Amino acid sequence: MSWLYDRLDIARERARVALREVYARGGSGSRQAMVEREALASEQARRLAQLNAVERGLCFGRLDAGAGQRTYIGRIGLRDEEHESVLIDWRAPAARPFYVATAAYPGGLLRRRHLHLKDRVVVGIDDEVFDLEGMSEGDRRTLVGEAALLAALRRGRTGRMGDVVATIQSEQDRVIRASWQGALVVQGGPGTGKTVAALHRAAYLLYTHRDTLERRGVLVVGPNPMFLRYIGQVLPALGETQVVMTTVGEMFPGVRARAAEAPAAAVVKGDVRMAGLLAEALRGRQRVPEGELVVELDGLRARVPHETCARLRERARAVRLPHNMARKLYVTELLKELARAEARALEESLHIEDLQVEGEPELSEPLDLEGDLDELDLDLASRRLWEEPVVRRAVDGLWPELTPQRFVAGLLASPEELEAAAPSGLEWRELVRSPGAEWTVSDVPLLDEAAELLGEDDSARRVAARLAGAEQAEQELYAAEVLTSTGVAEAGVFDRADVLAGRHADDGADLTTADRAAADRGWAYGHVIVDEAQELSPMAWRMVMRRVPARSLTVVGDLAQTGSAAGARSWGEVLDPYLEGRWRVERLEVNYRTPVEIMRVAADVLAAFAPEQVPPVSVREGEAEPRAVRLAAAGWPVGLPELVAAELAEIGAAAGEGRVGVVTPDALHARVSGLFPGGDLDAPVAVLTVGQAKGLEFDAVVVVDPAGILGQSPMGGQDLYVAVTRATRRLTVVYEGALPPVLSRLNSREPAENLVSREPAEKSTT
Ligand SMILES: Nc1ncnc2c1ncn2[C@@H]1O[C@H](COP(=O)(O)OP(=O)(O)OP(=O)(O)O)[C@@H](O)[C@H]1O
Fold it and tell me: What is the ipTM of this complex?
């Protein structure tokens, strides 16, 4: 393999030299030249980062066809001095046979070889022979075989997800290379490789549609920050660094929602009718005074009649602009009315006799100060009035300028406003919270919705700026293509290419697409991948869909693992409102993670709580029967550290391999974490709630207090299913009292001597 690494070193050196040359050109010149230089530099820097990221396992496959033809497959493509391809990028069409050839359909291949490298040296080889007859005598002698997939699955876990580029299975390959138009739903049970396939899909799409997706970016939405850390290394290892990863709780710039939400409140906040409630509540903030509007100005009482205020409000609403933008119109009109009212007040305060100057002809006309005001006067008077704090206060009382945070926090703290705005049947009482409460994940879609209603983002400004720019034509062309190719125009979601183009507008070349996109709430991504998508509420979907007007999505999830009471029950229910049938489902049915013995336990749980769902089929046998261990009740969970230490020894953690995951109900998490200080993903032992463990895996899993998990929410059954399917090798369930009947398959053992608390038995509270 050293010759391939030589090519890699040469490519790196070239990229380094090119980057140096770009910078050596200096920073002077026109704006155009600077923009070009930045673009070139960022392209070279990206290339260098990509070349650096593929060091480990650069090449992992070889395809042998007739007449000695050999093709090497690797993480990126490389060429020799003659520009001949020496390594094929795994995403290129020429690499596809590596993933799809089978004994029945070899597609002209004689052999598929998997190569295992360590420090640039081949340390293992697996061969799959498709045509022994076709192979030369010499080649036959070189055959080596152990199924590459099973070897990969047996490896100890590191606490981080790795890529599977060398062993992608053909049903996963279908997912990875599926068309990027419309939405692709990847439905599959635990461990079927949904996440890993989705990440490889991101890399594949960026490779195949680089031009478009580099400008628009790809967004990956995961269930929690822990999960993002877990998968964080996969894309760089595949040579892709230009992807934004986030969670629902972080999708509103400036807010990092972490606080937990009561299930009942999460259901209401996730209900799509919340969009109507917010809109109605905002209308409620556009007020008309009970009687006339009275503003005290230098001893004068300017009075605007109730009907005039009502008329102004209707006119401002009629323009159908977001609240803060319509406010500008409202303020302009109201200030003019106040100017007139001020003139009227002045008129009333003066008596014609007072204005009579001695010796001048007698004034007979009644005063008409208001009638005398022309547009210029009104303008000047408006400006003057706008500087008056009393006027500002009056305007704010009628049509306040609001931030999403202020509006939503105020609304959730006001039972009166909630009641007035809630549609009938919506349990608005669940929403009430104290004014200073922390933001929860379920609040974030509400903030995003509020931002749309308020118009706090700067999309209008960007559209206007772009209209003047030369780039507009190109943007519109792209937008028009998107509109026709996706059918979004017919659906009436975005029917104006210039609006869509405005959403796609670029703001400069000095930041990467990923940087700019991550900071911009109004950014429109080229493709969005949602993992653990079953957890998103309808309101969260509205927020996600705003980020992808072209409706190009990969939706990854398992309806059997829905843990959120506000989550999905069917994909049609989630996607039809946005895609009207332009989505399709691919199913992954083989479980690469959980051995057969553990999956039998999981299947019992699934049958009890979601009998309509079919568990996936495990690909391998395990090394140990899953077990249940009853720990003595007193001081619960005394004995756990010893049990976990024994598990660590079983999986060979002493040799630096393998991880134990301890999964607890929410209520026990703090207490159990205290028993294992410093435990996070990189430590040998991680203590997690079910929500945190979602999507993760460990060599050995210890599920603590299954009854607590079952009872902690209406989706407790699904939570227990998630908990027991995190193990790649060993599963232990520890409980106090009685084992829940749904786990009766597990051999309940009497407490082992070293695990029993010697304290008197009494039931503890968890
Ligand atoms: N083709 C493959 N080759 C090697 N390992 C694989 C392959 N497919 C999946 N795996 C491994 O199987 C495990 C489960 O994959 P992944 O986490 O993507 O599953 P999932 O369907 O997202 O599971 P869950 O629903 O539980 O989150 C991972 O360790 C992954 O690396």
Answer: 0.98
